Each structure stands twice: as structure tokens, then as C-alpha cells.
Amino acid sequence: MTTAAETTSLVQSVDWLAVAPPVIVATVALIILVADLFLPQERKPLLGWATIAGLVAALAFLVPLRDGDHSTFCLTTGTGTATACSYTADHFALIIQFLVLGGALLTALLSLGDTRKLPAGEFWFLLLSSAAGAALLPAARDLATLVVALEVASLPAFALVGIKRGDRRSSEAALKFFLSSVVATAVTLLGVSFVYAATGTLHLTELATRLDDVPGRLDTLAQAGVALTLVGFAFKTAAAPFHFWVPDTYVGAPLPVAAYLSVVGKAVGFSGLILVTVIGFPSYADVWGPALAVVAALTMTIGNVAALRQTATRARSAVRLLAWSSVAQAGYLLVPIASAAYSSDDQIGSTVAYALMYAVVNLGAFAVAALVSRTSPDNRLSDYRGLYATRPLAALAMAFFLLCLAGLPPGIVGLFAKVTVFSAAVDAGLGWLAVVMAVNVVIALYYYLQWTAVLFRAPEEPEAAAAPAGTAGTTPTLRVAAPTSLTAAIALTAAVGIVLSGAPQFVLRFAAVNLF
For residues 485 and 404, what is the distance between their CA atoms, to the nearest angstrom? Predict the structure, then answer.
């Protein structure tokens, strides 16, 4: 299907400024991998600070790209005119890269005090490698680059989940995550091959044009390719029915890794899903639009109902509740993408705004969970009882994060984000989906408010010394000093959440994107 207009030049110039953020992260990852071989054990903490410095440098290089007008790796005609590009640092890409790199930075802060029993060099290398792939994906504009970026972000994440050597739960979580993800990737690659066979191109902008005019004999192949391609990205978003890996993976992984997956992993899936649907497959909006609407309704309902079933005395029930809450939040994030099929890509700004809010408050909630786990390794919901009496600032921060997730004052940014998503569904004519979302928001209020109330209850009296250690309902009496980095992560996320609650409209303005 190659035409004269598509004659390409074999010589390409690379816009190194455009690709600087993921390249910097990948370079620092390689430096840390080599440095780990030569640093003595007592100097291993320097690797963590080098990771933070690399992520800060990558974030700094987003500033000169803020005009959103940088593209590279382009197909060109004989006159040098670009016809399609594989990498575009537009406004959408920059926002998601900011979210991804910021999430990785906060994860690094959470991890500084938690790598004592982990292989430090491998941990920081894997975290940066995954962050490099996650930063590459939102700027990818062809299916090959998208799949490669998706795998670069995912493969190190498998190892991060199972990095606790000798921990059976961690190994089991990594295996479940790996096997289910590999199957999803295989299905996605099959879909990409079908799409390429039907259109003869992998560039998203060209796909949008060629799918409008697919020969009749290839139409079924193209439809199957579109459906299968979406599966991998739906898996990364933890959308039903591809959500089953989430609770066990979050519980088995180190807490900072679970926080990373809940935010950065989700950002990867949603950005890929947005790109392939809105840019690549608008011709099939009548197919993926209703499908995503149904998936959004199922995802938020399954997540909230499962979160309701968590018992306060079950081991790691707090992390499980956050995991199921993450599934429910994925359902809300899917609503504007489904709505874009019925109106315009302007709805995508609602998903991006919600993702930014969710990233801040969810990372903050995991940070407080990491703090509690230092005195209560089982991390049960009952372990949070009386937290205000022992750590008042941490309890207030956790209450604020939970109220943001619930969409209640003083978490105005959470309420604002939910209203924008709700409006996107109404404006697109998806009234039934708006009703489902409203019901689910009410359901979620119960477990968020229940957890919030536990924080301020009076601590229970310690049981007799003869009682078995770790009996449900007991409150730890020891207070372990929190690492400075962990305290900084909690303070930073709380501060950002408070600022955004004071000016929630800033999030929507910042997240306003137009993909065409």
C-alpha cells in the first residue's frame, strides 16, 4: 500500500530535547546498574539518591518542552516534509510524563527507608527502567513503539513485585502478574498484526485514515485487530474482567511497588488506551465506545463491592482495600474515554485531570500505609485504630487522602474530579453510565468513611500478656521513627492535595488536551 507520497528518507535527524526525559531516566538506570558492582555495602544508599536526582533531572527537561510542539522519528517525503511521526512530545504526552516521573519520584522517596532488606542496586535499576518505559509510552505515536514501551514499563515491574527474596507471597504475586500480563501482551500483538495486515501501517495518524477505507474482505480482520489491541491496555488499567491480578499483586509486592503500580502502571495503561482509541481507531468508535462504557460500569462496581467485603482483622486488609479501591477508580477513569466515542476528544481532559488527582492522593495513602507497616507489619484496617493518638499528623493526612478518594470536603479536588467525569458522561448522552457512577460513589463512601472514622477512635487497651502476639484489635505500643524521606513523601502529597483543593479548576485547565 506504499504510495509515492510515502517515499521515506533514510537519513533522519533526532530531536534530542524531545526524547530527553525517558533517555535521562534510562541512562541513570544503566549508571546505577554499573555503579552497584563497585560500591561497598555501606555506600549503597547513594544509589537511591542518584535515582532521585535522575528523576528530578528528567522532570526538569519537561519545562523546555512545554510548548508541546516537538516530534521526531518521522516519515518524510522527498522534500523533507514529515508525514507521520513515531514520537511526539505534545501537551498530552508531557502531562502524562509529568505524572509518571512524579509518581516514580514519590515511589523512590517511599523506598529509601524500605530497601534495607532488598537488593538496592537491582531495585533502583528496575524502578528506573520501568519509569523510562512509562515515560516513553504517552509520546509514542505508532503501535510498535507503544507495545515496546508497554513492555519496557511492565517487565521490570514483574521483578519489582517479586524482589522480596524468600517471601512466598511476593513470588506468587509476581508469577500471577507475569503470566496474566504475558497472555494480555500476546493477544495485543496478535491484534496489532491484524491491524497492520488490514491497513499496511502502524502509525496512529495513518491508521485513522486507512481504517475508514478498509476493503470489505479485510473488514472483519480489522475489527478483530482493533478489539484484540485494546485488550493489553485494558489489562494494564485493571479494568474488568482483567482486574483479577490486582489484589494479590499489591499485597505480595513491597508497599512502594504497590503504590507505583497503582499510579504509574495505571497511567501507562490509560495513556495507551487513549492513544489507540482516540487517535488510531476513531473509525471504530461505535464498537469501542459502548464496550468501554460497559467495562467502566463493571469495573467500578466490582471494585467497590469487593472493597466493601474487606474485614478489619484480616491480615493486609488495608492494602487489599486500597487495591480494590484502585480497581474502582479505574472504572471512573474509563468513563471519559468511553464518552469520547460519542462526542469529541475534549472529554479526554477529564480522564487526565482525574488521573492527576488520583495519583497524588493514592500515593499519599500508600505512604501512610508504609508508615503504619513499620509498627504493624500485617497492615490490617484495625491497626489504624487510634492512629490520631500516636501520630496525629499522619492520621490527619490519611483522613484527607481518603476523603479526596471519596470526593468529600475538605478533599475538594476529589469532588471536583468526580464531577468532571460525571459531566463527561452526561454530555455524551451516557445517562445510564452516570447513574451507575453515582450509585458507586455512594457505595464507596461507606468504606472510605469507615476507615476515616477508625483513625480517630480511642485506641483499644492492650490485651493481657498471655494473649497471642498480633491478636486482632490490639494496638502497637511502640513508636518507630519514620525515615525522613517517608515523612517528606506524606507531607508533599498532602501539600499538593491541599493546594489543588483550594484551586481545583487548575487541574482541569492543566489537563486540557486536544489530541488532534
Answer: 23
